[in-house]
Amino acid sequence: MLLLINGLGEWLRGVAEGLQRFIVETPIYIAAPAMIIIGALDSSLLSLPEINDYLVVMRCYSDPKAAFYFPLFAALGSVIGCTFLYVLMRRGGQAVLRKRFSDENIARVERAYARFGFLTLAIPALLPPPMPFKIFVATAGALEYPRWRFMITIMIARSVRYYIEGILAVYYGRQVLEFIENYGLKLLGAVAALCLCGLAIYFIKNRLSGKKELIADEPVVESGEAQSDADAPSSSTLHSLSNKTRSVAVG
């Protein structure tokens, strides 16, 4: 089993190195469509971990001018691949989704979509590996998230991500990849902590506003009761009216 895992790792490393040489050494009119195809494959059913980030960094490092335009090709490929997976899950619905992902993860993502909307899709698309992303794409399709909003969100988030990596590659080169590998989980943890803080502030704010509304409503109820008591006739007034009625009847 260990030999199989090691062999698979060596094979993936060889594929990555071959793609790197191809993307870096070929002219842009060949590298650009190749990058779109690789991005589409990676973002759909075929997963090549971190390959898009790796190729963008290496191309921009070898050709600094490519940092102005090459990240767009990777982002476009990612949009195509994500849209393919989105359409597949939208047609298959919850049945296909539950075959690929666990019920617990699906329920967690569904709650995130209900609470945060497009940010549930934008933040995972923006963050580098090892942030899981395909489950958010698949859930968006199963929940019938608006297609054009889905595509625009992916395009913007992935463009920002790849442009940041490309610009950093011009100045730091392979250190960007080492940073992704060494600090990716820490970055993910920091973002998760910020999200939890935001949720805590949101719930506390809602609870405080709810208490203020209850306090504001109490005087209104009391004043209404006082007004009704004031409008009601007193017992002495009723007694006086009763005596006058009897006097008129006797007369």
Helix count? 10
How far from one another are the termini? 116 Å
Strand content: under 5%
Question: Which structural class matches the secondary elements?
Answer: mainly alpha
Poorly predicted ranges: 220-228, 244-251
Shape label? globular
The total count of strands amounts to 0
**Which percent range fits the helix content?**
over 70%
User: Mean of the pLDDT scores?
Assistant: 75
* H-E string: HHHHHHHHHH
Biggest beta sheet summary: none
Describe the structure.
The protein is mostly helical. It has one domain (2-202). It contains 10 helices and no strands. The longest helix is centred in the C-terminal third of the chain and has 58 residues, at 174-231. The chain is globular and about 70 Å long. The chain starts with a helix and ends with a helix. Mean pLDDT is 75; it is low at 220-228 and 244-251.
